[in-house]
Amino acid sequence: MSQEEISLLKEEGYSYAVLMKAKKLCSYQERMNKYAYAARIFALVLGTILLPLLFRKDFVFSFSSLNIFIASVYIIIAALTYYLFTVWSKYKGNFNNLRLDLIDHIGKNLCSCKEVCDHRDRFIIFMERKNIDLIFK
Question: What are phi and psi of 64, to 5 degrees?
């Protein structure tokens, strides 16, 4: 969420807490997308390395330096993939907790309006444009 978007939402009367939660939620989503993309790339590399090795019977029983190098590269890539998925999982948990908190928050005190307003619906639509669902828990 850009500073310009925050300024626009602030001018419309949204509370500071809602703005900061929305900003953090967008930040978590961006990080999740980056880590998921990187983890998928590494998983694809793992698959392209593993598939040919499964069909080579001499690879398992041979201890040549090339086979040891390929195995060590495979282990390193597998460790990196595991790390990326672990970090993604952490951000996913934080994202879901904050999303649920924001869903509860927008039901109570979203803006500083005293009369009936449509800020809640407009905020939900704004977040949907960012691919963040605030309708369903």
Answer: -75, 165
- Max alpha carbon distance in the chain (Å)? 77
Backbone angles phi, psi at 106, to 5 degrees: -70, -15
Nearest-angstrom CA–CA distance, 70 and 65: 9
For the record, the structure tokens of 19 come out as: 């703005």
Burial call 54-79: b when 16+ CB within 10 Å, e when fewer: eeeeeeeeeeeeebeeeeeeeeebbe
pLDDT tens digit string along 59-96?
555 666 777 787 788 888 889 989 999 999 999 999 99
The closest of 55, 45, 52 to 75, measured between CA atoms, is: 45
Q: Give the tens place of pLDDT for each residue, 25-42.
A: 889 999 999 999 999 998
